[in-house]
Amino acid sequence: MEWVVENEAWIGIVLQAVMAVIWIAYLQVFVLGYIRQRRPLVLINRGAGVGTGAQCLVCNMGGEPIYLTSVIADLRIGDETFRAFVTDREEVDKTTLSRPSEGTNQGPIGSGEFVDIGSFDQILERALRHVGRDDEIDRVDRMDLTVLCGSGHSMLLVAGRRRFIVGWADGDRRFVPNMALTEQITRRRDRRRLREVLEKSLREEAGNLKTASDPR
């Protein structure tokens, strides 16, 4: 007891240090949990079947809303790979739409919600049409889908990617994911590269415009 009294000041300092460490640990757990909750999570799933009618669903499992801006399809045909933006639902008759937004997959996705971006067959046909390979649909053996989204708290894109093996079973074209979960593109370098891909596409689109005096 006498030792405690003599070293009361030092004991107090040690106890304060221990309490500080405990509070720092609690704060770290809280901050990490908060960051994890805010971290975007984009899932690309196959639903409503496994054949040509299977739908491609894009889900937002992050804690905050995101805005779907673009969908990219990379197709492998033989030894070649072709890339196309397949965001808009070009197969839809625009004259039958009640709202213009129904002709595109762009738009906000709330936390825990999903959007149906079309059947896998429709997405494949869109991509082939864009790259001028409409007649080679039966030669495609792989399709990588990358979904790009905007986030309210970051200038960098939120993105997820999933690969689907394309083949035939029971006389029906199948799209089978080669991994259990969607790959989250989180590295700043990769996200910056995707942004450059998107901006390049926009520049090319603008470069193809004609003036009013030369609309050909």
UniProtKB/TrEMBL annotation:
Biased composition (Polar residues): 97-108
Transmembrane domains' residue ranges: 12-35
Keywords: Membrane, Transmembrane, Transmembrane helix
Top-level taxon in the UniProt lineage: Bacteria
Region described as Disordered: spans on this chain: 93-112
Record protein name field: Uncharacterized protein
Organism of origin: Palleronia aestuarii
Lineage, top ranks: Bacteria, Pseudomonadati, Pseudomonadota, Alphaproteobacteria, Rhodobacterales
